[in-house]
């Protein structure tokens, strides 16, 4: 289900992705040459993948199911509405969590974070801005989405943190 969604979104955004890629690669090469910056392929790829992720998030949260400015301000109302294991559960509950895992991963990597506070705060700020924007473009504002997105960002932090600890132990042996 998630892979199908990613493929569908990718098919819809590829023209923007091509243009973005040309612009970013041109700017990065120019920056390396003019400012004599160090080239780090791994960091550049991680940053580029993050930008593709942001573009995909933008597409997913702005171009689907218009419901004309409704809202849910009751925590757990939407979360408890779906039967565990149903397609709506996967799409709405797990989808909101999974959508923010890369955000938590990237922030933890980029800022070399050891504690999740900044990831949770920035996850909250991004999710709140998405929900407010959705309300004003005719989509649903839902506090449950904010909660699930922040959980997803936290999961991303912990996945990175656990991976870092495992890699650190292997490097020490």
Mean pLDDT: 88
Task: Describe the oligomeric state of these chains in a short phrase.
Answer: single chain
User: How would you characterize the largest beta sheet?
Assistant: 2 strands, parallel
Total discrete domains: 2
Q: What's the shape?
A: globular
Going across the biggest sheet, name each strand in turn. Answer: 1-2
H/E element sequence: HHEHHEH
Helix content: over 70%
Sheet/helix structural class: mainly alpha
Give the strand content.
Answer: under 5%
Cα distance, first to last residue? 39 Å
Helix segment tally: 5
- Runs in which pLDDT lies below 50 for 5 or more consecutive residues are none
Rounded radius of gyration (Å): 18 Å
Count of beta strands: 2
Overview of this protein structure:
The chain is mostly helical and 173 residues long. It contains five helices and two strands, in the order H-H-E-H-H-E-H. A two-stranded parallel sheet has the order 1-2. Helix 1 (2-34) packs across helix 2, helix 3 (87-111) packs across helix 4 and helix 3 (87-111) crosses helix 5.
What's the SSE blueprint?
Layout: H1 2-34, H2 41-62, E1 71-72, H3 87-111, H4 117-136, E2 141-142, H5 143-172
Parallel strand pairs: 1-2
Helix pairs in contact: 1-2, 2-3, 3-4, 3-5, 4-5
Describe this protein with a few key phrases.
173 residues, mainly alpha, 2 domains, 5 helices, single chain, two-stranded parallel ribbon
Write a short abstract of this structure.
By secondary structure, this protein is mostly helical. It has helices at 2-34, 41-62, 87-111, 117-136, 143-172, and strands at residues 71-72, 141-142.
